[in-house]
Design goal:
With 406 residues, the protein is of the alpha+beta class. 17% of the residues lie in helices and 34% in strands. It contains ten helices and 27 strands. Strands 2-3-4-5-9 form a five-stranded mixed β-sheet, with no helix packed on it. The chain has a four-stranded antiparallel β-sheet with strand order 1-27-26-25, with no helix packed on it. Helix 8 crosses helix 9. The N and C termini lie far apart (78 Å). The N terminus is likely disordered.
């Protein structure tokens, strides 16, 4: 029997619906008018290593009372995108880095917020200070000039504050504040593209994350959309003033936290929705293991006085998002559709709200607090347990939230 050759007799291409569909699909893939969310970018989605959606979501406990929604909004429209929250050796604070490029500290009701430090001499109120607009697109073109301080850590013995800035790398400023001093902006001769978070080892070494070799903070969403894994865990050694690559090939490495005995550190991989352990001592030195697969996209991780770990999570994963994760070619088409990103996210079933979780060093879930309606925060960056309460920071909003705890 003779096989029918659709291409040869052209009946396939002559069908109006098929032809229009093929042309429309080709138009979307090419995106010549750059109307999609990834328009104008060299978009190279890849499959990434994420635990199965059903396995994670069925085993993760829920906070049916949405207790985080009872949190109190503090300093509304006084702080702009306060990602990381820190207290000095005397318990004063909080200190936080803002979207306008400053590090500020709370001086009490009588004084309010005071500028403590800046990360660059470029900073000026005229160019950088946009108030509540600092957390919007209006600040984006100024970020690289003004700086964007993210992770903060005090050396409690010296009083020095170490800063991971998205554009100016790793810096330090003394107890009196002022202009921070750069420590490192390169590793192996290549620039640190997106310094994100840090922690300080007892020997003085500073572990910090560089989220991507390809994208800076303003374009951080493309890291998630692509699933690209060019991020690194780095170490800066003060005596030699040298920077070393500890781990490479990470998918959006973000928060960093040393354990209480400092035999290991934990870091979050935002794209892969997981918390990872890196061993610093013992028979597993230099090895990694997944401590917990998470229901959403983690940011910073911080330890309390009991040696437990608070993880800030932007929630939640969906079945549709898993389909995109496992099929890069679908992502390549989907995010080129001429539809705003917020609508594409809703079509995947995504509804952003906040989850914070307390985990043991073995990954046991000790506490889950949710804000299912987004009453307090729709996006969360960090949770600090201090002074009898949880202090909750966010890179996206103009306030801090607090909740009495325990």
């Amino acid at each position: 029997m003779e096989k029918k050759n659709f291409l040869k007799d052209e009946t396939f291409l002559q069908h109006p619906f098929i032809l229009i569909l093929a042309l429309a699909l080709g138009f979307v893939i090419m995106d010549p008018l750059q109307m999609g969310p990834v328009g104008g970018h060299e978009f190279k989605p890849v499959k990434h290593d994420i635990a199965p959606y059903k396995q994670v979501m069925e085993s993760w406990p829920r906070d049916n009372h949405s207790r985080l929604g009872d949190g109190k909004l503090e300093f509304v429209d006084q702080v702009f995108g306060p990602e990381s929250l820190e207290f000095d050796g005397l318990g004063h604070g909080p200190y936080t880095g803002l979207a306008d490029g400053r590090i500020v500290r709370w001086m009490g009701q009588a004084v309010g917020w005071q500028t403590f430090a800046t990360v660059t001499s470029n900073w000026s109120e005229k160019v950088c200070a946009r108030g509540v607009d600092s957390t919007t697109y209006k600040q984006w073109k100024h970020e690289k000039w003004c700086g964007r301080p993210l992770g903060l850590r005090f050396n409690k013995e010296s009083g020095d504050l170490y800063i991971a800035d998205a554009y100016y790398g790793l810096l330090v400023v003394g107890p009196e504040g002022g202009l921070a001093t750069p420590l490192t902006t390169k590793v192996d001769g290549n620039p640190i593209m997106f310094a994100n978070d840090l922690d300080i080892h007892k020997n003085g070494s500073i572990f910090f994350t560089d989220t991507s070799k390809r994208y800076n903070r303003v374009n951080h969403f493309f890291i998630l959309l692509e699933g690209e894994a060019t991020g690194r865990l780095l170490r800066y050694d003060p005596p030699t003033k040298s920077t070393h690559i500890v781990l490479d090939g990470l998918a959006f490495p973000n928060g960093v936290q040393l354990s209480k005995d400092q035999t290991f550190l934990l870091f979050t991989e935002t794209t892969n929705c997981r918390l990872v352990k890196y061993w610093l001592e013992g028979p597993k030195t230099g090895g990694t293991e997944v401590v917990a697969d998470l229901p959403g996209f983690p940011d910073n991780v911080r330890m309390n006085e009991r040696g437990e770990f608070w993880v800030a999570i932007d929630c939640c994963r969906t079945a549709g998002q898993e389909v995109l994760s496992n099929n890069p070619w679908i992502r390549s088409v989907y995010f080129r559709l001429p539809i705003p990103m917020r609508f594409l996210a809703r079509m995947m079933g995504m509804r952003m709200y906040t989850v914070i979780s307390l985990l043991s060093e073995k990954g046991e879930i000790l506490q889950v607090l949710e804000d299912q309606k987004g009453d307090v925060m729709k996006l969360v960056s960090e949770v600090r347990e201090a002074q009898g309460k949880l202090w909750i920071g966010t890179v996206a909003h103009n306030h801090i939230a607090t909740l009495p705890y325990p």
